[in-house]
Specification:
With about 475 residues, the chain is α/β, with parallel strands linked by helices. The chain has two domains: about 220 residues, Rossmann fold; about 190 residues, Rossmann fold. The chain has a nine-stranded mixed β-sheet with strand order 1-9-8-7-6-5-2-3-4, sandwiched between helices. About 45% of the residues are buried. Uridine-5'-diphosphate-xylopyranose (UDX) binds next to α9. Uridine-5'-diphosphate-xylopyranose binds next to α9.
């Protein structure tokens, strides 16, 4: 059976799906917020109500300072908010009024119990399903947007089938492939929209929403389980490419090859392709590590030990890359960074986002703090409170406890500053951890004047003009290149 097919509408409207679409989305995070804002912008006649338990987050969605920083998102939200886009904490009311309910809650890796460190924590999904069952009447379409382990839809269906009010449901999987930092463009022009489901009528209903601005050839339909697995597999393949080029970067440093040249040389082979071959201090973000560990857990569950080990190496390599970077800093700076000021440029997991989940910067900063370095951290979009919270979590034990020693270390050895110059002032070294564009255009002469000697630069993103910096008098260490 061929399950992956471009979508073609051949379905007559089902009795269940004749009323105008009304959407509710549970979860106003990095996925739910931007995705729903785009649907509302493109479909002015569809009411879209985004709900979340987190009042502070909802307040920010209703303000001029959105909780999610994404280029272009402000305009999208402003156009639709108050017209057909609403944000609130009225979860029950929103569920009962809607006929399409998206679930876009977080599914972090479990930190306790069976599958800890690997399996997804489905607590929030289950709570949503129970709430939907409780608040629904008639027929509703429930759409999984969150990335989930394969066959979660089955559990959701079982919970929904216990609905007391005689409500009935179709469950679809519609994973989101947007990348943070480019979410608006990704939502406007997706490579594809994937809809997995058993009921053709339900699939058609959702496809019609996306079909308002996305061509039908790009709307693919599969069975439920293929859709759920495709999301995990896509992220695993993408992360694998980053780990592959990062593995090569270690070899480049040892041999004198240049990883960017190697990436270009191999990327021009059309079978390999040039995208996603940028060597870095390590991938971060809420998805890659979580989804691979999820895949690993799934393989182990089905007794596929070799397959599990194969994918796990992608994460092992990423951990190695992050560790290797901080070790290189310490080794290069005469084997001690104790009491030395290091300017940290960038804390987000990539540019153009304020998201810091699993950012490589957290790991590098933790390692440097363990060595008693003094860190001056600057990120254009991440607030101080979030940086401190991430560092505290990085030092916390398995039940979230933070020792007094580590608490004091963060308090005394970390300052968060307002620009790249302040981070570099009187510093022994600069470490570039996020590829923000503004770092490429700093006045490097001014930076050099303000720094201690030797003026070390550790470019964890290979974005700086290395030759120029070396000419000016910096000692530059990049990823996947011999040091200069
Ligand atoms: C990813 C997937 O791209 C997206 O399809 C999915 O919906 C969610 O997960 P995201 O995590 O937002 O998106 O960003 P992405 O651009 O994939 O970057 C992930 C990490 O990999 C970042 O830390 C980035 O800096 C790093 N990366 C990416 C590299 O180090 N090198 C590259 O060549 C590409
Ligand atoms: P993602 O990156 O997947 O969007 P986020 O953590 O940014 O993840 O957002 C998920 C949101 O879901 C959070 O704001 C959280 O408060 C919300 N959430 C979790 N469980 C529920 C629930 N049962 N009802 C409403 N909102 C929920």
């Amino acid at each position: 059976m061929i399950v992956l097919r471009p979508y073609q509408s051949t379905i007559a409207p089902n009795m269940n799906y004749t009323s105008p679409v009304k959407i509710c989305c549970i979860g106003a995070g990095y996925v739910g917020g931007p995705t729903m804002a785009m649907i509302a912008k493109q479909c002015p006649d569809i009411q879209v109500h985004v709900v979340d338990l987190n009042q502070a987050r909802i307040d920010r969605w209703n303000s001029d300072e959105l909780p999610v920083y994404e280029p272009g998102l402000d305009e999208v939200v402003k156009e639709a908010r108050g017209r057909n886009l609403t944000f609130s904490t009225q979860v029950d009311a929103a569920i009962s009024e809607a006929n399409i309910i998206f679930i876009a809650v977080n599914t972090p890796t479990k930190s306790f119990g069976i599958g800890a460190g690997r399996a997804a924590n489905l607590e929030f999904i289950e709570k949503c399903a129970r709430q939907i069952a409780k608040c629904s009447k008639g027929h509703k379409l429930v759409v999984e947007k969150s990335t989930l382990p394969v066959r979660t839809a089955e559990a959701v269906k079982r919970i929904l089938s216990s609905a007391a009010n005689g409500a009935t449901f179709d469950v679809l999987s519609n994973p989101e492939f947007l990348a943070e930092g480019t979410a608006v463009q990704d939502l406007l022009h997706p490579d594809r929209v994937l809809i997995g489901g058993e009921s053709s009528e339900a699939v058609e209903r959702l496809a019609q929403v996306y079909g308002r601005w996305i061509s039908r050839e790009r709307i693919l339909t599969t069975n439920l389980w293929s859709s759920e697995l495709s999301k995990l597999a896509a992220n695993a393949f993408l992360a694998q490419r980053v780990s592959s080029i990062n593995a090569i970067s270690a070899l480049c440093e040892a041999t004198g090859a240049d990883v960017d040249e190697v990436a270009k040389a191999i990327g021009t082979d059309s079978r390999i392709g040039s995208k996603f071959l940028k060597s870095s201090v390590g991938f971060g973000g809420s998805c890659f590590q979580k989804d691979i560990l999820n895949l690993v857990y799934l393989c182990e569950h089905f007794g596929l030990r070799e397959v599990a080990q194969y994918w796990e190496q992608v994460v092992v390599m990423n951990d190695y890359q992050k560790r290797r970077f901080s070790e290189r800093i310490v080794r290069t700076m005469f084997n001690t960074v104790s009491d030395k000021k290091i300017g940290i440029w960038g804390f987000a997991f990539k540019k153009d986002t304020n998201d810091t989940r699993e950012s490589a910067a957290i790991h590098v900063c933790r390692d440097l703090l363990e060595e008693r370095a003094r860190l001056a951290i600057y990120d254009p979009r991440v607030p101080e409170s979030q940086i401190r919270e991430e560092l505290q979590l990085a030092f916390a034990d398995s039940v979230g406890g933070l020792s007094d020693k580590h608490k004091k270390l963060i308090e005394t050895n970390v300052t968060v500053v307002g620009d790249a110059y302040a981070a570099a002032n009187e510093a022994h070294a600069i470490a570039v951890l996020t590829e923000w564009d503004e770092f490429k255009s700093v006045d490097s002469r001014r930076i050099l004047e303000d720094m201690r000697r030797p003026a070390f630069v550790f470019d964890g993103r290979n974005i700086l003009d290395r030759n120029k910096l070396v000419e000016q008098g910096f000692e530059v260490h990049s990823i996947g290149r011999p040091s200069k």
